[in-house]
């Protein structure tokens, strides 16, 4: 552990802490936690229930299928979690009804000292908890998961890699040029590694040329061309520089020929 306080403190309120814990040991996130740059705490509402059965859910008022998470165990759990993060940390509920989580939101959360994630299960949580105790509702996409745990892990992964010091110098320099410089807001360009030829398929010559300026222009051109082809919506809000417009025109011409 680092002797310094973590730069980011996250708490996850979940009925399945083991699911979250297991994923947090792996890769970039695992290393960030191991180095003490980020702390993730887990709060299981079942551990705070007062009845012998550890009841956390109940039948919905008004009838219908499934169960609803009860307000009291979740409220108590959120209070516990909030006590362990810096003052003012937002409480975020993960649900399919939330605003779409994106890279801009990841950047905003990575700049905070902390936040609390609430993962729902079953049919959802009692609306009074959302009204009283939740600052923000986030969805990771237009599909229904059986619980918010995977969504919480998606948010944690995307945020933690943006925390200063988590990625190595080379990786973060690359990421900065992608986020703020030439290719910000575009899809990634294609990547290749050895061998230079596989089953008759060759790596583009330019990447073997050692000419850094040509490689930069080729990558930017590919990023622009792919974005125009696959996610034209991303280009609508983005003003292309004159170099980018030129490269995109070139890409389209090459694509036609
Ligand atoms: N819980 C269930 N579905 C979800 C989604 N799409 N995003 C976030 N949390 C969820």
Report what the structure shows:
There is one protein chain. The protein folds into two domains: 8-160, SPOUT methyltransferase, trefoil knot domain (Alpha/beta knot), CATH 3.40.1280.10; 175-256, tRNA(m1g37)methyltransferase, domain 2 (Trp Operon Repressor, Chain A, Orthogonal Bundle), CATH 1.10.1270.20. The protein has 257 residues and is of the alpha/beta class. 41% of the residues lie in helices and 16% in strands. It has helices at residues 17-23, 27-34, 71-83, 103-110, 127-133, 149-160, 169-180, 212-230, 232-236, 242-256, and strands at 8-13, 38-43, 57-58, 68-69, 91-100, 114-119, 136-139, 197-198, 201-202. The structure holds adenine (ADE). Adenine binds at residues 94-96, 120, 139-141, 143-145, 148, 151. Adenine is lined by residues 94-96, 120, 139-141, 143-145, 148, 151.
What's this, in brief?
With 257 residues, the protein is of the alpha/beta class. Helix content is 41%, strand content 16%. The chain has helices at residues 17-23, 27-34, 71-83, 103-110, 127-133, 149-160, 169-180, 212-230, 232-236, 242-256; strands spanning 8-13, 38-43, 57-58, 68-69, 91-100, 114-119, 136-139, 197-198, 201-202.
């Amino acid at each position: 552990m680092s002797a310094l306080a973590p730069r980011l403190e996250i708490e996850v309120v979940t009925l399945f802490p083991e699911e979250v814990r297991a994923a947090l040991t792996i890769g970039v996130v695992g290393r960030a936690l191991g180095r003490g740059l980020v702390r993730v705490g887990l709060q299981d509402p079942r551990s705070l229930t007062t009845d012998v059965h550890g009841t956390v859910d109940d039948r919905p008022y008004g009838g219908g299928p499934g169960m609803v998470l009860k307000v009291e165990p979740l409220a108590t759990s959120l209070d516990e979690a909030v006590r362990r993060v810096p003052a003012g940390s937002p409480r975020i509920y993960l649900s399919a009804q939330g605003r779409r989580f994106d890279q801009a939101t990841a950047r905003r959360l990575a700049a905070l000292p902390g936040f609390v994630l609430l993962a729902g299960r079953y049919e959802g949580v009692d609306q009074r908890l959302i009204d009283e105790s939740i600052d923000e509702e986030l969805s990771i996409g237009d599909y229904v998961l059986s619980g918010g745990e995977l969504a919480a892990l998606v948010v944690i992964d995307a945020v933690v890699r943006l925390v200063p010091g988590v990625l190595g110098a080379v990786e973060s320099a690359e990421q900065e040029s992608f986020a703020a410089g030439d290719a910000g807001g575009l899809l990634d360009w294609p990547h290749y590694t050895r061998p230079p030829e596989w089953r008759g398929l060759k790596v583009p010559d330019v990447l073997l040329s050692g000419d850094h300026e040509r490689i930069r222009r080729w990558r930017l051109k590919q990023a622009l061309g792919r974005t125009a082809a696959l996610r034209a919506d991303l280009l609508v809000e983005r003003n292309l520089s004159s170099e980018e417009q030129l490269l995109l025109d070139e890409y389209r011409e090459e694509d036609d020929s």
